[in-house]
What does this fold into?
Amino acid sequence: MEVKLADSEMKVMEVLWKEGDVSAKHVADVMHQRYGWNINSTYTFLKRCIRKGAVERREPGFICHACIPLEEVQRLETEKLLDLVFDGSVDKLFTAMLGSRRLTAEQLQEIKRVVEQLEEEAK
It folds into this structure.
């Protein structure tokens, strides 16, 4: 299921992905603390997420449940970025990301491990 989420909706989803099922009131409190949003704004964004099928409302207490996993949204957003900015080229994205950041030895080791795993899968 491909769900397109606006930035504000992604912020609401981040609370659910990090904290699990929580009340809409809790989400509103977090959004107020982080971004200064009022309760009505948060409820508007939650209702949009519900309409899009990204969030399920459970009763009693307007408990919010994320219906799509973070990893799925990350995959879709990465594909969108690849197509939009890098003409679908993974190597261009990879080069741009690695060329613009200083990586730790541990991060480089993890990248090597992933590349080796992909090489094995390609055989």
In short: The chain has a mean pLDDT of 92. The CA atoms of residues 61 and 108 lie 46 Å apart.
